[in-house]
Write a structure and sequence with these properties.
heterodimer, A: 338 residues, alpha/beta, Rossmann fold, 2 domains, 7-stranded parallel β-sheet, 5-stranded parallel β-sheet, 9 helices, 18 strands, B: 301 residues, 9-stranded mixed β-sheet, two-stranded antiparallel sheet, 13 strands
């Protein structure tokens, strides 16, 4: 089959519900595809997931590559990798994007390795542009710039992989923007290549347990976040109090989560959730780069820290050097007075 | 259960500046304080736990410059049985595909194994890709984000983290397991092993040392002395074999920079942006003024 040079996204779903990142990827893919004047494809794998074609269409997919099979009901590396790899080999998209989720980062490398192509992890931006190879002086037109933090978030690197196809990337959640759903949009469905053998069934899921998420940080307009400075589980009551007063959600730094002050669902940062609220209040958080990358795009940032040298103070719009146990009650009081 | 643990010496990314990157966008590792990649320490710990419960051996392997002998020594001090270093200028500047290729060839030379343990990701590349890519090249199943590993009815069971929970997988061997930090606590080095492995070294290090101390020796003399010293240390279990390109079967087109489909094109240092940063006094009046402003700006309702 000749290549239609499409841009594909992996439509990650769990329990027959699309993950938000799938729609974010579609939004970005649509952007890139319009730049390149090609179509957008969505890889949809699962069991009895056909109905998810609808939201995928509304959010920008031109073609849904559907693999509906009982063996694909729950995510396992080998069957998913096999289906996607063979489908890519058959249809030859030029770009394939995955969310940098736990699944995406388990799955995409396996596929890229089989296809002997490049893969860039955890991109925070993607652009189309030209590239002049400094080693061979070869000029590549309209390739994918894969932009991502590296070295623990201390640098932003632009990675390119012009010589191999497809160009693949995993993309950080919560960064790209989904398109508003358009029910005027239409898409067609094409079959993904499903050739599953015993080899793919080698790994069995013996047990699977998921707790429903107790907090949706990404949808929160206001987040009050606590760090190691909060000092303990009880200390977070103060954080919760402020959050409740202001109508916000509770966040936390990795340090606070690791210390057991609060559940991982609340973690903001490189290994937690990336958020972009209207107001982010960081209490007793030092502001290590791994935390900053998860919240630095917040519209307004307030930081409360007793350490005048805490890095968080340099990115805060309002920096308060003081004891959060005194400052937070002041904030609650003040807000009630206004 | 014979395991191979892949470990990496990484620059301490808490101390990176633009000065420590090279022109071509790759890291200048020699210029930074080097540490044992944190996830790899956890991978080693799980491998040691498997050995404790089910028997077998734990080999550690690293791909890197000569200096990486330091993390191999560290791993031996924590209980690993054997160490190997893959080191060759031509392996350098490899992306994850070329790295996983090189590692796969070395592992094929080692031969038999039941489990490969890797850290989930390294704190320099932050890709978490080498483990799964290595598994694909070896044609074996993988389990990432592992928290616990045990045996049941001859099959390996892995408890791994999934989003919002966990799952237990049954895998046939050989298989590859990636481990992330935060669940497993690495054991410390044992005092006895620290003393034993103080003299652990590799041939190139012996050569460098002897050359420095005896620049009056001829090439031939130096070579003989190095062989002698190496043999002595090897007999005592204190010599780390170093494999270069010629020591195992690799296709030169698939290693190093040449074998890397991805290239680092540009690198920008991330700087803290000060923007409109204002200090608010930690007093009732200071805080009230700030809250008023936020309400006026419609940030707070």
């Amino acid at each position: 089959m000749a290549s239609k040079q499409e841009i594909w996204i992996f439509a990650e779903q769990e329990e027959n519900r699309l993950k938000p990142v799938a729609l974010e990827l579609l939004g970005k893919a649509r952007d890139l595809a319009d730049d390149l004047d090609v179509k957008v494809g969505a890889l949809l794998l699962g069991s009895e997931v056909r109905e998810l074609s609808q939201p995928l269409t509304e959010h920008g997919a031109d073609t849904i590559y559907l693999a509906d099979h009982p063996e694909l009901k729950m995510y396992r590396t080998l069957p998913y990798a096999k289906v996607i790899t063979r489908t890519i080999e058959d249809y030859k998209p030029q770009i394939v994007l995955f969310g940098a989720t736990m699944i995406g980062r388990d799955l995409a490398p396996r596929i890229a390795s089989h296809l002997v192509t490049g893969l860039t992890a955890d991109c925070t931006d993607l652009q189309i542009g030209d590239y002049l190879d400094p080693f061979t002086a070869q000029n590549f037109e309209k390739i994918l710039y894969q932009i991502r933090p590296a070295f623990g978030g201390n640098v932003i690197a632009t990675i390119v992989g012009p010589r191999h196809s497809p160009q693949m990337a995993t993309v950080r959640e919560g960064v790209m923007k989904a398109l508003p759903p358009g029910n005027h949009r239409v898409a067609q469905t094409a079959p993904a290549t499903v050739e599953l053998t015993n080899a793919e069934a080698a790994v069995e899921i013996i047990e699977h347990y998921r707790k429903p998420k107790t907090v949706d940080l990404r949808a929160a307009r206001i987040i009050v976040s606590g760090g190691a400075g909060v000092g303990g589980k009880e200390g977070f009551d103060l954080i919760r109090n402020l959050a409740r007063t202001l109508g916000g959600e509770v966040g936390a730094s990795r340090a606070a989560v690791d210390a057991g002050y609060i559940a991982k669902d609340h973690q903001v940062g490189q290994t937690g959730t990336t958020v972009r609220p209207v107001l982010y209040i960081a209490c007793g958080i030092s502001g290590a780069v791994q935390h900053r990358v998860g919240m630095q795009e917040s519209a307004k940032i307030i930081a409360i820290n007793s350490d005048p040298d805490a890095p968080i103070l340099s990115i805060a719009h309002y920096g308060i050097i003081g004891d959060l146990n005194k400052v937070i009650p002041m904030m609650i009081q003040a807000y009630k007075r206004i | 259960m014979d395991s191979i643990v892949l470990v990496k010496q990484v620059p301490d990314t808490k101390n990176i500046t633009a000065k420590t990157m090279k022109e071509d966008g790759t890291v200048n590792r020699a210029a930074l304080p080097a540490v044992f990649n944190p996830d790899d320490l956890c991978a080693l710990e799980l491998a040691l736990q498997v050995r404790e419960r089910f028997g077998g051996t734990v080999k550690v392997m690293s791909m890197g410059p000569l200096r990486a002998v330091e993390v191999l020594r560290d791993a031996l001090c924590r209980g690993a049985d054997e160490a190997i270093l893959l080191s060759d200028k031509r392996f350098a500047a490899a992306d994850t595909l070329a790295t996983s290729y090189t590692l796969s060839r070395a592992i094929q030379k080692i031969g038999r194994f039941d489990l490969i343990f890797c850290g989930r990701q390294a704190i320099d590349g932050d890709t978490a890709q080498v483990g799964p890519q290595l598994a694909e090249k070896l044609g074996i199943p993988q389990a990432s984000y592992a928290q616990e590993v045990w045996l049941d009815n001859g099959k390996v069971r892995v408890r791994r983290e999934v989003e919002g929970g966990f799952e237990v997988l049954a895998l046939p061997t050989p298989a590859l397991i990636t481990v992330s930090g935060g669940y497993v606590l690495p054991r410390p080095k044992s005092a006895k092993r620290i003393i034993k492995y103080r003299r652990l070294t590799a041939k190139p290090e012996i050569e460098n040392q002897l050359k420095k101390e005896h620049d009056e020796w001829s090439e031939a003399e130096l070579r003989n002395r190095v062989e002698e010293e190496a043999e002595k240390l090897a007999r005592a279990g204190l010599l780390v074999p170093v494999w270069g390109m010629e020591d195992f079967n690799v296709d030169v087109q698939r290693i190093g920079l040449v074998g890397s489909p991805t290239r680092v094109w540009k690198v920008l240092s991330v700087t803290l942006h000060t923007g409109e940063s204002r200090k608010v006094e930690a007093s009732e009046s200071g805080v009230l003024a700030m809250m008023r402003e936020l309400v006026n700006d419609h940030v707070l309702g």
